[in-house]
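Quick one:
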Amino acid sequence: MPRVKVSVLMAVFNTPIDLVLRAIDSVLNQEFQDFELLVIDDGSTVDLSLDLLRYCSINPDKISYIRSKNKGQSYAINRAVHFAKGEFITIIDADDEYKSNHLSSCIQEMEHADLISSLTETVVSSNEDYYVADKYDLHKNIHVDDCILFATLFGKREVFRSIRFENRYSADSIFYERASKKFKVKKSQKRTYIYYRNIATSITAIQKQSRNYYDHLPKTGSFIKKD
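Output:
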C-alpha cells in the first residue's frame, strides 16, 4: 500500500453507532484528502462491530477496520500505530468530530514542530463541563484549554513510533511531556476539533453524577471521556 500523508486513528468501544458514523464522516469530508482512517474496534458488542464493518467496507480505499480484544484506548491506539502508513499520525475520539479543515490546519502547524496539540471547540451542557480533574491533584479542576487532549495530538510518524501511550490517567499529557524531551512540540491555538462533553452516556457524565466524583476517578487510563 502506498504511503499516505496522514493516518487518522480511531478507537471504538460500544460508542453509539450514530456518533461513530458522525466521527467517520467528518474525517471522510476533510478538505485534505490524502489520508487513511484506521478504525480500531476495541472489543465492542457483536451488533456494533457488524455495523462498523459494514460502514467501513463502503470506503475500502480510505478506511481499514481492525478488531481486537477490549484493552482500552491507549492499547488500541498503540496497536494501530504499527499499521499506520502516514507521514503524520493523529487521533479522533469516536464521539467527536473534525471541522472540514482540521487536517489541513494541523499540517500547516507542523512546519516548525514534530508534535502539536490543539485547542478544541468544546460542546458542553453547563459551564462545569469545561473543567476536568488536574492530574497532579484529582480534587482540583483545570480548564480543558489548559490540557493536552488525547485526540488533538497530531505529529510525525516517528514520534508515535518511539513513544507509547501508557494505560493511566492523563496518558495524553504524559505522552506530550515525554515527546517534548526528544522532539519539538507546540500547542496550537486553532479550534478545528469539535470536542463533545455533553454526552449523557459518556463515562465522564456518569461519574459526575456521583457525589464523590473525584474520589471515583480512575487511577489508570488517560484523560478521555470514552465509553
